[in-house]
Amino acid sequence: MGSTQPTFTNPATTSLLELVEARRTHYALKAESPIADEAIEHLVRTAVLHVPSSFNTQTSRVVLLLKEEHQKVWDIALAALEGLVVAGAVPRETFEAQTKPKLQAFRAAYGTVLFFVDYEALAGIKEKFAIYADKFDPFALESNAMSQYLVWTALQAEGLGANLQHYSPLIDAQIQQQWDLPASWKLDAQLVFGTPTAAPGEKTFAPIEDRFKVFGK
Prior knowledge:
Elements: H1 11-22, E1 29-30, H2 37-50, E2 60-66, H3 67-86, H4 92-107, E3 111-118, H5 123-128, H6 136-157, E4 161-165, H7 172-178, E5 185-196
Antiparallel strand pairs: 1-5, 2-3, 3-5, 4-5
Helix pairs in contact: 2-6, 3-4
């Protein structure tokens, strides 16, 4: 974005920023992976373990679903949206022309990472630091978002494309029932991934001058 390239003491910094720039939203995905399932699992597990959280509360919960298990997420979403059509909340034409094809495209990918927040795990810290009690839920979401971004960027670095979805609360109950997850896990986002079959859309930026300022330089 800048006109000059700074010099960093650690070459890995340049590599990290290149990965940040390379991360994109990919919707055209197929059910293949250039890396082994074990590598994907290690990548996600490492993110869960090492992403920071406020007061080290470690409230993020993550479920990795591959292949047929991944497809179940989007079968649940399709059924939920079809239910809205039957109830008259979503027009049939909109569902058939837009929503259904989009959900089927997610289903055609290789995997989904489900990101949850366990807000009940915050009870103790809220009591201990009552003056900040109303801040801990937003802090937990911030930590969860860091996990989402790290996993997304790492998957991209390994040749996988991904897109982030938010279908809560429509699918929450069925997701918890399908995989017997604790009721305290509240679904926040779904990261769909697979091998890209098309280039991502053009990436545009608002003027950086309106979003970033430096003082004391």
